[in-house]
């Protein structure tokens, strides 16, 4: 009788001395990457639900960003005693890329807790939820990218061949976004107070990062700007489009920050992945 009962029960082999955290984390990333279509579908569904009943949908963000560009461009070009044709391309790229980074970081804090119902009911890889967060913000950010082209045409700014370097810059932003979605998603699932702290930090970083102002206004302090990780990441896209490639030190700093972000996220994911279902 006991043998028949044992034969019908599923066999679970759990060894507390050997939890195989690394293998399970790698398998999660592999399966999550292979299911990117599911992540994209969920991200698209999020956008449709968010703007349900709206006539323009995400294009409202494009209109508001365009209005902000015009207002801030007129104001700060006057304050900094710069021509609008010189200042507006810098502001357009800076503001569009910063909005994408800021929104991504803020959304990363809820990348897992927002999917609590799915995590508790379906055995999906956690990487799918991180990709869903990144793709959702990537789609929204894509609605603002045409503003950069419009500003360049109006101001007569034509980037050179070095503009192709903006593609590696966008890849660095994407890598950092996935790492942030995993790390902050797990951290904020465990400590719910971290989310508001991240939001306040991003507001402060907006003024400390050369978005409204140019780095050269700092004088000899400009050499220290690569210590700001947001400046380094931002410059990998803005430099090729506006500054003729960007300073090499900013690229080195951006790559180092990306490696550090990925390593921290990977260590945290490997160590605490098994607790996410209990944290959310």
TrEMBL record:
Keywords: Cell membrane, Membrane, Polysaccharide transport, Sugar transport, Transmembrane, Transmembrane helix, Transport. InterPro entries: ABC2_TM. This is ABC transporter permease. Its main location: membrane. It comes from the Bacteria. Residues 40-239 form the ABC-2 type transporter transmembrane domain. Pfam families: ABC2_membrane (PF01061). It is a multi-pass membrane protein. Belongs to the ABC-2 integral membrane protein family. It is found in: Cell membrane. The lineage of its organism: Bacteria, Pseudomonadati, Pseudomonadota, Alphaproteobacteria, Acetobacterales. The chain crosses the membrane at residues 59-79, 139-159, 165-187, 194-213, 249-270.
